[in-house]
Specification:
The complex is a heterodimer of chains A (about 110) and B (about 110).
Chain A (H helix, E strand, L loop, with lengths): L3 E4 L2 E5 L4 E7 L6 E7 L6 E7 L4 E4 L2 E6 L4 E6 L8 E7 L8 E2 L3 E6 L1
Parallel strand pairs in A: 2-11
Antiparallel strand pairs in A: 1-3, 3-8, 4-5, 4-9, 6-7, 7-8, 9-10, 9-11
Chain B lengths: L4 E3 L2 E4 L5 E6 L6 E7 L5 E8 L2 E5 L7 E4 L6 E5 L8 E8 L7 E2 L3 E5 L1
Parallel strand pairs in B: 2-11
Antiparallel strand pairs in B: 1-3, 3-8, 4-5, 4-9, 5-6, 7-8, 9-10, 9-11
Classes of the chains: A mainly beta (about 110), B mainly beta (about 110).
Chain lengths: ~110, ~110
């Protein structure tokens, strides 16, 4: 079945620096790739998603890139702020309403 | 902003007891899901529900599990006879379909003792 691997498991950056989190997936039929942010005591919150017909998508300080050939996608956060500190999950799915296969999560710490 | 609401936030139950986890999805959403996260592990898919029936379920979702949408607003997950290994955070989610993704609830932490 589909498997999603996520790296790194923890990431510590200085405020203002960029952070990059990478994921690989195994099922070449996957075509929907969301990223979620999870803060303590809350559920995963969708922050950005990308579909397989697009190579890159940006939303202010957040961007996601997708390489379908290599089956990997990445989350880029620029100008990080302390409030970006959270656990980030990538996921892959056959569609935006299908089951999500999650990565292991990355704990991002942004130091002031 | 509309939210998916889950109750209770934390439930402790004895092994072998039945539990019902409750969720109120966003009102105009059409697709409903349950996921779980065992401490320190990945978030795992359990079941998806659309048009009043299960559309997909995982290997985890065996005969001990069932879902219901009893009244058009609530969406429940029942575990008939809980085991220690059912201890996890259970997340409900909903989606309107189209180009939109999921919205997750804050989760119910289930502890089986």
């Amino acid at each position: 079945g589909e498997n999603v691997e996520q790296h790194p498991s923890t990431l510590s950056v200085q405020e203002g620096d960029s952070a990059v989190i990478k994921c690989t997936y195994s099922d070449s039929a996957s075509n929907y790739f969301p990223w979620y942010k999870q803060e303590l005591g809350k559920g995963p919150q969708l922050i950005i998603d990308i579909r397989s017909n697009v190579g890159e998508k940006k939303d202010q300080r957040i961007a996601v890139t997708l390489n379908k050939t290599a089956k990997h996608f990445s989350l880029h956060i620029t100008e990080t702020q302390p409030e970006d500190s959270a656990v980030y999950f990538c996921a892959a799915s056959l569609s935006n309403t299908g089951k999500l296969i999650f990565g292991q999560g990355t704990t991002l710490q942004v130091k002031p | 902003e509309p939210e998916v609401t889950q109750t209770p936030s934390h439930q402790v139950t004895q092994m072998g007891q039945e539990v019902i986890l409750r969720c109120v999805p966003i009102s105009n959403h059409l697709y409903f899901y349950w996921y779980r996260q065992i401490l320190g592990q990945k978030v795992e898919f359990l079941v998806s529900f659309y048009n009043n029936e299960i559309s997909e379920k995982s290997e985890i979702f065996d005969d001990q599990f069932s879902v219901e949408r009893p009244d058009g607003s609530n969406f429940t997950l029942k575990i008939r006879s809980t085991k220690l290994e059912d201890s996890a955070m259970y997340f409900c989610a909903s989606s309107p379909g189209g180009d939109y993704g999921y919205t997750f609830g804050s989760g119910t932490r289930l502890t089986v003792v």
